[in-house]
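Appendix B, Record 12. Input sequence as logged:
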Amino acid sequence: MIAAFSISPLGTGDSVSESVADAVRLVRESGLPNETNAMFTNVEGEWDEVMALLKACVDKVAESAPRVSVVVKIDHRPGVTDGLTAKVAAVEAHLA
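Logged structural output:
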């Protein structure tokens, strides 16, 4: 599965980048395929490992914020691997 998620601390002031970086660090240390862009972090893996990682990210951000907002979009396709690159490659093939 692929999960695209955005996590933001609430009630901590104007800047969220430090807390977001704490969550992204956990994703990168997880060993799961991932990518981060301006709006979301995408991570690919089995359901239980991705959900555990999302919980860890929420818990980490909650250490420095009284409230945490999370938006998650999931593409659940059992048996499919390398979706992070394959999905983009399929679109790029149509653009070539």
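The longest helix spans residues 47-62.
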